[in-house]
Amino acid sequence: MKILVVGGAGYIGSHMGKWLLSANHEVTTFDNLSKGFRDSVVGGEFIEGDLANREQLDQLFKSTAFDAVMHFASFIEVAESVRNPARYYQNNFTNTQNLLDTMVAHDVNYFIFSSTAAVFGEPQYTPIDEKHPKLPINPYGKSKLMVEQMLEDYDKAYGLKSVALRYFNAAGADPSGELGERHDPESHLIPLVLQAASGRRKEISLFGNDYDTPDGTCVRDYIHVQDLCDAHMLALEKLMKTSKSNQFNLGNGLGLSVQQVIDCADKITGHEIPVQIEARRPGDPAILVADATRAKQELGWVPQLSDLEKIVESAWKWEQSFFLQ
After folding, report:
1. Which residues are marked as active site?
2. Is 67 within a domain?
3. What is the pTM of this model?
4. CA-CA distance, 142 to 175, in Å (whole number)?
């Protein structure tokens, strides 16, 4: 198939591009490089472009008859979204509408959307299934939910079929060490912990150790980026087979505490991780865990690499190969 990967120079998008290429699909990566990196695009065609530019999108879809589009080009920093909501609504919602309108105009009818657990807001129960109320508490989560709602309307009005995949905590790196996580600034726990292990960071901040959890630290659900790629491919295959839009939560269903992640990194790296205990952050739930039963039953998705040690090992390999050369 000919697949357009939007935001394919970023963390998850670059892994998806490599995954698709290894399965012999034709991949075009479209990215403005505001957050991504050109050297993360390991093959296929690369076009530097911006979703805000409708004319550029129109030319792209005129030049290639895409079978499907995968969309990863969202801003993801919760705190930044609170400080600057306009930036998030523009990029995550308005620019996505530009993309969808161009797809409709060029009769491209299959769309896989990178959504987020942030659409649910504060958990009313865990693990969180697809029926959980969607009450996002920040502009980031709201912008993603708005896209999900738009997708429902575009399906009814224009026949654009989509799957929204709600990640919990994407983690890990390409097992070969060729690709990995390098956000700037970095805010995800596992790369921060490994930066402390490698000496690139003095210490990590642990925001609260008095939660109602077994060890007092927050519990989260980590899913390996390769398993996410597998879910995207299974979702696209199912979508094209059934022409039925859907939404799926993606996680491993096993909550792991911040302290467990730190202890695992100690073990894998052989370095003690310096930790600074800080006050709790507003809006941090004690426990966030996914119920991914629907994805497993309906897509046949079976995570292969989302054991914590495998996640940390792959991320540590990336940290050593890319940053410590």
Report:
1. 140
2. yes
3. 0.95
4. 33
